[in-house]
Each structure stands twice: as C-alpha cells, then as structure tokens.
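Give me the 3D structure for Phage tail protein.
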Amino acid sequence: MTATPRKDPLVAAYFSVEFQGKVVGAFRECTGLGSESQVVEYKATDAQGRPVMIREPGTMKYNDIVLKRGITNDMDMWTWRRDVEEGKIDDARKSGTITLHNQKGEPVARWEFTRAWPSKLNGPTYDAKSNEVAVEELTITHEGYKRVQ
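Predicted structure for Phage tail protein (149 residues):
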C-alpha cells in the first residue's frame, strides 16, 4: 500500500481583500465563506407502500462574509457603505477576491465573490482601560462565490 503524502493545514496569518482589482487592505479575521441549501421535505411512499420522508436540496443561500480589521484613517469601507445608505446600490455592487496569506505573506488560498455590497458596517467599541487595537467590522452580502485556489 502506497502512503499518500501528508498535507499540512494552511496557517492563516491574514486575509487581503480586493474589489474590482483594487486591494482594499488586510484583515485580521474573515468569517462566512460558505453556503447552505434549504432542505425540502415531503412525504411519499416506497415501492411497498410504506411511508417515507424524502429530503431534497432546495434554494441555495450564500452566507454573508464578515471582515474585521484594525481601524485606520482609510475611509474606503465607510464610503462604500454610504453608497448603499444613499440608495446607490448599482454603484455599490462590486466583485472581488479574498486571499488567505501565510506567515511569509504568500497567498495560499483564494475565493472570488460576485456582486457584493456592504450590508452592515460597525465602528469600533472603545474602552479607555484596554490596550487593544480598535476594530471595525464589515458585513458583505453577495450573490455567489467560489474557491479558486
């Protein structure tokens, strides 16, 4: 029996995000890269006339992507969110890429998403007694994604 070479899990140092080819920045946390199918259940009978429950995949839903980064003087996320607040959703929709980088800064995994827009933006919570970086959080709603690397 031939042993298959072991593949180590990827170590996440940071995520970079770009929209329409423009790098927006590095993020310390990224969640929500996933999808789910609603489950459609219906009762039927099998060949012997016994009742059975059939479970089929229904509508597919993509999870919202949530990005967190230390706040800077860059206003890019706030400007993008303002487009939605002002009803300019066509201007706000952007396709982009999320790239996972290892500790050397090399790209090790990549996801592309389409027609995304910022559905939520939270500024930092301040605690003068804390010695932590102030973090802002962006929630991106999109119409699909795929892992390409």
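The chain has one domain: 14-147. Let me know if you want a second pass.
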